[in-house]
Amino acid sequence: MSEQFTFTLKATSGKARLGEISMPRGTIRTPAFMPVGTVGTVKAMYLDQVREGGADIILGNTYHLMLRPGAERVARLGGLHELIRWPQPILTDSGGFQVMSLSGLRKLDEQGVTFKSHIDGSSHHMSPERSIEIQGLLDSDIQMQLDECIALPAEPREIERAMEMSLRWAERCRVAFGEQPGKAMFGIVQGGDQPALRIRSAEGLKQLDLKGYAVGGLAVGEPQDVMLSMLDITLPVLPTEKPRYLMGVGTPDDMLKSVALGVDMFDCVMPTRSGRHGLAFTRRGKVNIRNARHAEDMRPLDEQSSCPAARDYSRAYLHHLVRSNEALGGMLLSWNNLSYYQELMQGIRKSIAEGRFEDFKAETMEMWARGDIDPR
């Protein structure tokens, strides 16, 4: 731990980076996967399980928490860490992505965005300054700038407009954040699928000398090859001595290929959302536990996993729980999925330290390609 926010690049293997973020509430080993705790809970999980599974940091959502229970209330209750019993670092997103998804309920201008709550229809205004204020009330450790994230495909002129506004908002967020020892504010590179705009955005943010940089707008409907090509263009522009965070991504395959390009941090709802719908991620790829082939299979999802949900419960039981819509089914599969994501990150970090990341990547993808064990 450190009293200041520091990032140390410890090793590289190709473009893949092994690092460590140190801050007062703990150390974050990178590449890192951050489980999403949207409203102060990682859905269907005890936070003790999340921690024991290997997570060094979780994510909270500014938009949802400002609406319920309210940022001021969270502050009165001692901050988000105290409220949810999570002593380690928390990253909060700015709310920009959620506001984008409310396109029919919002009005955007230079000052910020006015939107209606999806809960009760009440009206709210979020400016760059208010976003940083809310994240401060939540007492988050890594705070994100407010940005305008637009869905792809979009017209280049519209992408440029949103990117330029996001740059101006980043500067306002930097001023509002000020100097907060031990904490950090990250900027967000935008620019859609336009290489020149991505480079301009990254260059502009670099001038602000922020503690870290995120790449946004690449989990909004574009194909994987577009995401990877934009990363390949953008990441070399960003400072090598600062952490790089790819927002809202993704599948294990997305993460493995993005680490190969130099990404350090990820978040995604996919492991828990998929778990609640009967989909498991394993060493052998994806397993749809709803399928009838599992109904009488007493073997576990993965006998080699360190996670009890994967190792100790039969496929037959998991199949029964999911098909019966029992909450426990979603809980066990979410536990399995988050554990697999963290095991993947651990394997990635180890392979970079040993200088064999490309071999690890190939071996992992080969195992996925083999598919699940044969049915009985």
UniProtKB/TrEMBL annotation:
Oligomeric state and interaction partners are given as:
Homodimer. Within each dimer, one monomer is responsible for RNA recognition and catalysis, while the other monomer binds to the replacement base PreQ1.
Protein's organism:
Rhizobium oryziradicis
From the Swiss-Prot or TrEMBL record, what is one GO molecular function term? tRNA-guanosine(34) queuine transglycosylase activity
Catalytic activity as recorded in UniProt: 7-aminomethyl-7-carbaguanine + guanosine(34) in tRNA = 7-aminomethyl-7-carbaguanosine(34) in tRNA + guanine
Q: What is known about what this protein does?
A: Catalyzes the base-exchange of a guanine (G) residue with the queuine precursor 7-aminomethyl-7-deazaguanine (PreQ1) at position 34 (anticodon wobble position) in tRNAs with GU(N) anticodons (tRNA-Asp, -Asn, -His and -Tyr). Catalysis occurs through a double-displacement mechanism. The nucleophile active site attacks the C1' of nucleotide 34 to detach the guanine base from the RNA, forming a covalent enzyme-RNA intermediate. The proton acceptor active site deprotonates the incoming PreQ1, allowing a nucleophilic attack on the C1' of the ribose to form the product.
Gene that encodes the chain: tgt
Q: Where does substrate bind?
A: D93, S94, G95, G96, F97, D147, Q190, G217
Q: Which residues form the tRNA-guanine(15) transglycosylase-like domain?
A: 15-368
Which pathway does the database say it acts in? tRNA modification; tRNA-queuosine biosynthesis
Indicate what this protein is called per its UniProt record: Queuine tRNA-ribosyltransferase
Q: Which GO terms describe its biological process?
A: tRNA queuosine(34) biosynthetic process
Extract the ranges annotated as region (RNA binding): 248-254, 272-276
UniProt lists the family membership as follows: Belongs to the queuine tRNA-ribosyltransferase family.
Q: Which UniProt keywords apply?
A: Glycosyltransferase, Queuosine biosynthesis, Transferase, tRNA processing
